[in-house]
Sequence to fold (314 residues):
Amino acid sequence: MESDKSKTTDPMVFAAGVLALAIVVWFYGFVPRYGIEDSRSVLGWLMSTWNGETQLEFGKFAPLLILALIGYRFRDLRNASRSGRCSWLGLIAVFVGALFYVISHRLFLSRIAVCSLPILLWGACHFLWGWRVAKILFFPFFFLWLVVPWPYLHTEKAHLLLWVVSLAQHGCTLCGVETEVMGTMILPVNGDLKPIYFGMGCSNGIPHLIALLLIAAGWAYVAKIRMWQKALLFLSALPIAVFVHALKLVSIIVIAEKGDARWAVSTWYGWSNLVLVYPLSLVLFLVLHSIFLGGLPWKKKVEDQLHNKVSEKL
Fold:
């Protein structure tokens, strides 16, 4: 329930917001409790996990992407904040976030501590500016959860790896190259090409799966489509990742069998992510977005602008 008397322009409310932000920065940025010998803060621990071992190096770009998403809706945020009023319902989220932080601090649960931060920030914005602002900031704040190194991701990746290898085997068969599959290892029946192990830690696994999820999430957030279409666009990152990585494996094996094996396993192996995986993924995202929109996004935008001008004249 929103209060008509407590507006965000109130100096006391503004001072309370600044104080709350300072407290959050202190506890999340400077209080050591996690990591090696409990020497890292919450954010310090999270940044230390963005490394090659977790395959989340690109997590370092997450803060910039979050700021970009907020900046994209800056005009909407400004308009919403002008008419916004303090909503005491936001304090419920603040309480939940603080409770999660206390539990994580007592039990050394670093991931729970990270997850509590978006809840705190979102609840504070809801309290200060109301539901309209909170609704806009919901996705950018909780976007942080996508770059937390969750343990279950390794298990899910194992299933995806098996799908990729199986799909790649069928693709090679269509291209006239017979292969054998042993777990996550695929090898040609003929030729001198060594078996390709599609494993967890190698660059030929799916270290870019989370990156594709981040791209899909950001794309869905800015897309002018319905909510269920945004959800499908985000979830499409999983089948798209399986498809493009299977295609990458097929290309390596077919080039090696029918062309230059040394070039396939060295040059093409190293460049295929930038030349094939990411460009094709972006094209597939664009195709799905265009299907939902009923046309290419930039053409649809021009058509809508012309329609609005005609409507104004009439």
